[in-house]
Amino acid sequence: MGVPAFFRWLSRKYSSIIVHCVEERSKECNGVRIPVDTSKPNPNEVEFDNLYLDMNGIIHPCTHPEDKPAPKNEDEMMVAIFEYIDRLFNIVRPRRVLYMAIDGVAPRAKMNQQRSRRFRASKEGAELTEEKQRMREEIIQRGGYLPPEEIKERFDSNCITPGTEFMDNLAHCLRYYVADRLSNDPGWRNITVFLSDASVPGEGEHKIMDFIRRQRAQPNHDPNTHHCLCGADADLIMLGLATHEPNFTIIREEFKPNKPRPCALCGQMGHEIKDCQGTAREKQGEHDQFADTMPVAEQEFIFIRLCVLREYLERELTMASLPFPFDFERSVDDWVFMCFFVGNDFLPHLPSLEIREGAIDRLVGIYKDVVHKTGGYLTQNGFVNLERVEMIMHAVGVAEDNIFKKRKEDDVKHQAPAYLTTGQFAPQALGGRDRPQPVHNARHQAFDMRMQSRDHNNRVSLDSWPSDSSDSRGVKRKAEDSDSEPEPEDNVRLWEEGWKQRYYKTKFDVDVTDEDFKRKVVKSYVEGLCWVLRYYYQGCASWKWYFPFHYAPFASDFKDIVGMFSEFEKGTKPFKPLEQLMGVFPAASGNFLPTTWRNLMTSPDSSIIDFYPDDFAIDLNGKKYAWQGVALLPFVDERRLRAALDDVYPDLTSEEGVCSVGSPPRLSPQGTEFPAELCHGIQGTLNLDDDPILPDKIPSKVLKPSDWERSGQGPWRPQLGFNPNRQQAHLNQSAFRSGKRQTLGEQTPCCFSANAEVIR
Asked: How far apart are CA 299 and CA 736, in angstroms?
């Protein structure tokens, strides 16, 4: 999922990191489609060596798209996934490696977020079904027209979870797809293809990171290797920086807001279900023969050039007159670490740090002020220096009160009802005694008014984007919206005195004077910071650890944290696939589980029935939209869950028993030249940090080619990527281009190459 608003902030601040992808389209000749020859040079003017696909970011939009009709069945879903991979391969055209990683069983810290998502998805699906039925009855009573209601089972996206029959079928289909492309596509002829399916524990992007770290550790590693990672999660940017690879690019879909979506009731474009009038659809052709052939605009892709981002960061983070030698790579690690405070998949962000309010810039400024006193960097090879982190938190804590007050002021400005000019053109009350001042320079005054309006638009575009001046000279009038929902009541009121007392009482139901409880929350958060950094740089430090609260502490509560963390428990193991399903699924998705296991979710006599509430509260926590809120679900007690499952394990069939233990650690990469050490992520070996791959030596940024000759070629100039004349992505004020938004059989994680046998 990543970090909300991080990419928007990053693309606004460092606009040159983004360029549009050039995609060569297939052609038709006499009705025959001629595929693109991907063995030819890349039209993007850069050649990539390795392409990594975080497959879950492909599976979800292909199986349940938001801006076009959904596939009718599972076969169409698989074809859509194949076509999506073909498009990416056509754009990137890797020359050495294609690595496809599907999310396996995740660490417990991630499972809590997965649980929240799946419960929300189930709740929203049920609410949508009820809303559709209510609207259908109303429209029919008014005499409106609606197409006949199709009797089909709703696709439950929760099946995209390790351990389900759908994920097993997907793995088999991907093996078929890879075998076909290796045999028939010339662009695939000389590359090695790795497939890590859902039977292998670990998140897809972290399987990829482990593969890259092990590549770097090889004695024959080529530091000029150009990596391209596909995924829309913002944390992929931080993971890419954490590799310290000089040539690293991320490809993702270009987000276009306000894209038309079909009405969930009548299927027509241009309105939402709440505005549906039940009018008949216009015919496409005389006999409506073109109804199913209407073109759908294809999603475009953009490149995020981390080599350019590294140059930006080097300029911003370089500090002179330090009491220790400046190391840019270490400062990048510190920058990645500081981004954790504004949110990630494992910890809630600190209340005083919002990306939209410039929290990362604030942290960088504090970091550069404090680093002279710390005597060194905050992190090293995935380990945190808590004494230095406490100094950063102290500086943030001092400013917390002002941050909350400024946030309220910005909200008031944003919600003000009218645009009022000032100066000589300011409106005057009729009959007023004050005589307006004469206009001395109308051109200058008009320019000031235009700049005033533009500055306001810039602030609004990032939801209270911070400005250097507190003067609000005008506010744009907002369109009257009678259907707008009232703002949710904020009982904490962080901008008023006593905010800390109200926060702890409202969110934790404890008194602010309970120092032991506050220290317990801070200790868990500190452990989380150490866990996340280790996860990014070395591997999973503990499969059992998780942050046991829904909310974060304040920065001012980080006191005496040096002794709060020692080490994580060694030798922990992930959940088994069926156990994970029991930990993340709501009762509505119990059809993916064996019968006796499913009954534990619904039976009143179940010892763990409290893990599966029929309804739950969503705390907006000062936000406006439900998706931004906090789902107040009970945390799963691992010991209670395992005790309950011990009673139903004997009921599993032989096939279900295979599903419950996951995939055997087996690999048969016949014909490949890749050493076995690089294949941990596909043979089922757990990615633990007991034996980490540490960056003992940072390679040169770009080395001279072995066949480079000075004669006739001029001086050596490293080429870090794209042609400098490549068209950049032009972004509007919102930082985006405008637009009109099981039962498992035996699993064999596999490695394919051009001359390898397909593993059955």
From this structure: 13
DSSP state, residue 433: S
- Give kind and range of the element (H or E) at residue 194: strand 192-196
If one compares 451 and 692, the residue with the highest pLDDT of the two is 451
CA-to-CA distance for 359 and 337, rounded, in angstroms?
A: 13
Higher pLDDT, 665 or 384: 384
How many domains would you assign to the chain?
Answer: 1
Residue 334 belongs to some domain of the structure: yes
pLDDT at 292: 53
Name the pTM for this structure.
Answer: 0.81
According to DSSP, the β-strands at 27-29 and 301-305 are unpaired
Instruction: Return the higher-pLDDT residue of 692 and 554.
Output: 554
What is the CB neighbour count within 10 angstroms for residue 438? 6
Q: Per-residue confidence at 423, pLDDT binned at 50, 70, 90?
A: low
Q: Phi/psi at 192 (nearest 5 deg)? A: -100, 130
Residue pLDDT, tens place only, 582-627: 999 999 999 999 999 999 999 999 999 999 998 898 888 777 777 7
Distance in angstroms (rounded) separating the CA atoms of residues 552 and 350: 6
Residue of 447 and 6 predicted with greater confidence: 6
Are 505 and 511 in contact by the 8 Å Cβ rule? The answer is: yes
For residue 254, give both structure tokens.
Answer: 């270009």
Asked if residues 728 and 303 have their Cβ atoms less than 8 Å apart, the reply is no
pLDDT tens figures, 511-526: 989 999 999 999 999 9
What distance in Å separates the CA atoms of residue 679 and residue 286, rounded to the nearest whole number? Answer: 58
In a domain, 114, yes or no: no
What residues form DSSP beta bridges with 250?
Answer: 229, 304
Taking all residues of the chain, what is their mean pLDDT, rounded to a whole number?
Answer: 79
Contact, 759 vs 683, CB < 8 A?
no
Question: What sign does the CA torsion over 520, 523, 529, 535 have?
Answer: negative
In terms of C-beta density within 10 A (0-12 exposed, 13-18 middle, 19 or more buried), how is residue 714 classed? exposed
Dist. CA 230–CA 250, nearest whole Å: 6
pLDDT of residue 55: 96
Evaluated on CA atoms 366, 367, 373, 378, the torsion sign reads positive
Q: Between 279 and 351, where is the model more confident? A: 351
Confirm if 298 and 245 have CB atoms less than 8 A apart: no
**Angle (nearest 5°) at CA 51 between 49 and 52:** 140
In the predicted model, is pLDDT for residue 244 greater than 80? Answer: yes
Q: Which domain holds residue 390?
A: 328-407+494-557
Rounded to whole angstroms, the Cα distance separating 682 from 759 reads 13
Beta carbons of 235 and 345 less than 8 angstroms apart:
yes
Nearest to 160 by CA among 74, 80, 98, 51: 74
β-sheet bridge partners, residue 228: 51, 249
Q: Read out DSSP for 334-351? A: HHHHHHGGG--SSSPPPT
| Residue indicated by tokens 């370089």 | 318
Q: Mean of the pLDDT values across residues 730-739?
A: 37
Contact 504, 515 (CB under 8 A): no
Both tokens of 66, joined, read 């938001």
Work out the pLDDT band at 124, boundaries 50, 70, 90.
Answer: confident
Whether residue 388 lies inside any domain: the answer is: yes
> Is 374 within a domain?
yes
Say which amino acid occupies 417: P
Distance CA 621, CA 71 (A): 36
Report which DSSP code applies to 193: E
Residue 527's alpha-carbon distances to 366, 531, 626, in angstroms, are 22, 6, 29
pLDDT band at 166 (very low <50, low <70, confident <90, very high): very high
Is residue 421 a contact partner of residue 452, using CB atoms and an 8 Å limit?
yes
Q: Summarize pLDDT for 439-465 with one digit per residue, the tens.
A: 556 666 666 666 665 555 555 455 433
d(CA 340, CA 347): 8
Q: 733: which DSSP letter? A: T
Q: Which pairing describes strands 301-305 and 248-253: parallel, antiparallel, or unpaired?
A: antiparallel
